[in-house]
Amino acid sequence: VQTQATLNKMDSEGAQNLMNNVLQTYVLPEAERRRNEGIPVDGDIWAAQVLFESNKTGPRIRLNSEVRLVAQAVGSTEVKDYVELYNSGCRAFGSVQLVPDESNVRHMSLYQIGVTSHWHILFNLAEQETRSGDPEGQIAFDAGYQESTPTELEALYAEHDRIAELVLAINSPTPEAPIETVMAVALQRSRHLVQAYVSLLQAKNLSAPVHLFACNLIR
Amino acid sequence: MRVNACFLVSDPLEVWAALKSGEPWNRVKSNDSQPLTDAYLHAQLSAKFDWATGVYKQMSGYVHLSRPHLESTVEGEDFLGMIIHQGPAGARVTDRDSTENAQLFIKVTKALLSLCEEYATNR
Q1: B52-98 pLDDT per residue, tens
Q2: Which terminus in chain A has less CB density within 10 A, N or C?
Q3: With an 8 Å Cβ cutoff, are A152 and B3 in contact?
Q4: Which helix or strand (DSSP H or E) is residue A203 part of?
């Protein structure tokens, strides 16, 4: 176990190595175990928690909807269940934390914070009795891990952010300002529609076909 | 179409006023004195995206009561022996329909993003 000082100095490469280690050591073997037992994980892994419990022989591993985290969506001050937010289509998280009743557990939690499969690692490996009680032991690192290429719709979702920033940065005087405002309204509406389409196509398990069709379309 | 309309009028505030008030946009006139009807707007957009009119007609089919709705509701188009389905939304919408619809939507979204980016980068 690394010391706190070392952890605080961890750079993005270190975080990514840590992320890969956790994936290889715990997450992927657990997914493989479930597949062998006939209860495979539904779809890609988008969140995982490794819980180190002193009264157990090995760590307990939660995958996807099993993780227990709370989060704030970007632009919101409301703290909600991370899984609920994720399942409702939210892909931009401002902060993610352990649920209050598990704030002292030793854990490594991996979760996505953006539409481009960008991952964060939140972990705490200190023994409960050795900690002062403050949340210092919970440190989030940006692992920058790219699990997969985003689907066409997910990429479009991210594009809305980039282009909305360009439009809103213009800040021009009247009479041009209405154009930017109309664009902002249209971009926001379009973003909501993309979100609805992602949910619809995921519900119909059509993400992959749409991705392929869209690629062909662009070519 | 309506974002592009901002560039077809002499005063974008008129477009903004129509958006704010909910008034029909065809009361606003373009630079060439044409009312901003849907037909005019998709024809103008076709100057930038040649597929615009075709996609407009196809996507309108998903909104206005038309053939796609009939196909998802009715089996057999002659009244004798016709089966009419009522049930959960999308229950008879095929994966092919959903995929085609998504392709159209992606196309339109890319056009919107392109218009906005072009405007923002040229300002």
Answers
A1: 999 898 888 777 888 878 888 888 877 778 888 887 766 777 777 77
A2: C
A3: no
A4: helix A177-203
Amino acid letter for position A105:
V
Q: Which two tokens stand for residue A199?
A: 């949910």
**B103 contacts in A (CB within 8 Å)?**
210, 213-214, 217
Q: Which residues contact A30 (CB under 8 A, 6 or more apart)?
A: A48, A61, A63
Within 10 angstroms of residue A48's Cβ, the number of other Cβ atoms is 24
Chain B residues 96-115 with a CB less than 8 Å from chain A:
98-99, 102-103, 105-107, 109-110, 112-113, 115
Q: What is the ipTM of this complex?
A: 0.83
Question: Could A159 and B113 be called an inter-chain contact, meaning their C-beta atoms sit closer than 8 Å?
Answer: yes
Closest listed residue to residue A168, CA positions, set A156, A155, A177, A157: A177
| Type of residue numbered A50 | V
Out of A181, A197, A209, the one facing B105 most closely (by C-beta) is A197
Alpha helices in A37-176 (DSSP H): 82-87, 152-168
DSSP state of A174: T
